[in-house]
Cobyric acid synthase (Pseudonocardia ammonioxydans), 520 residues
Amino acid sequence: MAILGAVVVRGAVLVAGTTSDAGKSAVVAGICRWLHRRGVSVAPFKAQNMSNNSVVTPDGGEIGRAQAMQAHACGITPGVDLNPVLLKPGGDRTSQVVVRGRADGQVSALSYRHRTAALAEVVADSLAGLRRRYDVVVCEGAGSPAEINLRSTDLANMGLARRAGMPVLVVGDIDRGGVLAHLFGTLAVLEPADQALITGFVINKFRGDPRLLDPGLEQLRALTGRPTLGVLPFAEGLWLDAEDSLSAVADGVLGRPAPPRGEQWLRVSVVRFPRISNATDAEALACEPGVAVRYVTEPSRIADTDVVVLPGSKSTVTDLAWLRSSGMADAVLAHAATGRPVLGICGGYQMLGRSISDPDGAEAEPGTRVDGLGLLDLEIAFDPVKQLATPAATAWGEPVTGYEIHHGRVRRSGDPGFVGEEGSDRGNVLGTHWHGIAENDGFRRLLLSRLAAEAGRTGFRVAEDTSFADERTRQLDLLADLVEHHLDTSTLEHVIGHGPAADLPVLASGLAASPGCALP
């Protein structure tokens, strides 16, 4: 057990949200980091995640990137128990299901409902294991518990809280507007037994004088009988490892670029595919002073850029078709024809080759074969078995580690390797299946220097003191500082250790118990 002041902390809490992107991931990371800094043995948990931003864990499985970030906040090694169910959308109606780190079929929104009873047991086992190993488990909900149409098959919100007897905090994003109605309404639509677990509220991304909000919070408590544990201010410096990496992007620009160390900026455009995955690969580039990274979706934004990055895709063939129909493919080819650099990662790497085939329908229709952009001498064939790996190699004299998550396999390549023997290097066009390579500081500096030289940016200089790991730690500590300074941590400790109060009022508008609920 761990002791904070006079309080023995051992327990769990679920952080839910009024909407997607309300700030659940950030609040969970902040609470985890705050507890870790005080010597508490703590782990994050998200029963079911829907995201194409994922990582490969040391135990060989695939989990959502946000849970890996939260594990770093806790000072623990990421593992599949942190996110036992991951849904990776490949289109508007279907998703790949990843169970305890391994791909386990495709589902539609309707067919998935038939799997949730069995997955509930997987979730329960993973959570129970974490609670045995750690003093505190901080759980993250998915979407919103107010999605009462999905309550009977809910794995990650009130279904999880009810099954585990956990107290629930509800986070609302005031930057969206209407936050008091969101918080009240989320509670009001729930059935009485679910309402009984809602212990308090947290308001996120507040700008201005909190005194203006105080009357509303007092009325919210009078209406619901529940306190607001705090108001977290809007923090400009938070942008790494977002659950949806594009949610942190303002005006297409990633992060807040620091001024260049040399005389010139390096402008990097990352193509924002409709089914983009692991867009977080661009974050390490954006950490460097003088590197301005932006997401682009139309051809004119490529015309004046120095470097084009084709990132990962959950549906490579479909996104390649979009690249052509949108005019972006022609813009990328024109960019490369001038000798300026193009970098492809995973799905983007596959698009740069001569052809892509999918004989067994691993990602596209069985028997699909399409031409690539032809910038690399590369032929790709998809395999039903997903490649998951955490490789290491040497590139340009620097050690490089990364991770692989892909169905595509290189069937033929006539280009030299890019990272060790992996990938392709054809001068101004580079490609690799490895994610996370730019997080290696020494290699990233060499990569950016080469890209700048290919782009003719002779006045660009890398910074020898930039550490991506240190920047991630700084952001995690910033989240912990927000929790420490702006939340009622005494109440939070009590909630974690003792659960919801027994006398929390039930709103009259609460629904009757849902019949046939899969997670009582």
Q: What stands out?
A: DSSP finds 16 helices and 28 strands in the chain. The longest strand covers residues 378-389. Residues 1-8, 514-520 have pLDDT under 50 and may be disordered.
